[in-house]
Specification:
Length: about 200
């Protein structure tokens, strides 16, 4: 599904971020809300040879894996008017051309009492993508993240900022996958620093 098909005739759109978008949307938006989507779990199973890695050492970034019993917390951004087209042009390059993500519409549930769900656009890297790396142990993923750097910065920054977002904005949510990889990456960094 192409973003252009989704927005035909719409004057506003919600975009759900669950990775770097939670701290660095880099597009103009009307408002944002913390909340979650159901039926997906966040995993560091996607390779990145541009933003957080390179062809020799691809970094690891998050994608969503279907899981009926799971939910993923993040931020949804409402874009309106000219922001709709501008944000989609930007995200098409950031997520689709450079990242290999596809788009879907999902129900987003804002945090808080009496909040109604809204339809939101989400970018997902699928397993048929050439950059898809798949599962590995937290230690393997953490070590890979500790070693990689791309045009946007160090892969470790991506991991630590996502973990910080979860702790500060969603303190009631225990993301074991994220936090176990964070611990493994920080252990690897301490070994690297001690070896110098």
């Amino acid at each position: 599904m192409k973003p252009q098909d989704i927005i035909a005739g719409k004057s506003s759109l919600w975009i759900f971020g669950y990775g770097s978008l939670v701290w660095k949307p880099d597009f103009k938006y009307k408002r944002s809300k913390v909340g979650y989507i159901e039926g997906y779990k966040r995993r560091f199973w996607h390779g990145d040879n541009f933003h957080r890695g390179n062809d020799e050492l691809p970094g690891r970034v998050v994608t969503l894996i279907e899981d009926d019993d799971a939910s993923t917390w993040g931020v949804a951004f409402e874009v309106t008017g000219s922001q709709v087209e501008e944000s989609l042009k930007y995200l098409n390059v950031r997520e689709t051309v450079c990242g290999g993500y596809v788009t879907k519409m999902v129900d987003f549930f804002p945090e808080g009492e009496g909040q109604s769900p809204v339809q939101a656009l989400v970018y997902i890297a699928t397993c048929d993508n050439p950059l898809y790396l798949g599962p590995a142990s937290p230690e393997e993923i953490g070590a890979q993240i500790a070693m990689c750097r791309g045009k946007t910065g160090h892969n470790l920054e991506y991991l630590l900022r996502l973990a910080e977002f979860m702790r500060s904005s969603c303190p009631h949510v225990e993301d074991l996958h994220l936090f176990s990889i964070e611990a493994a990456a920080l252990t690897m960094v301490s070994y690297l620093l001690a070896a110098q």
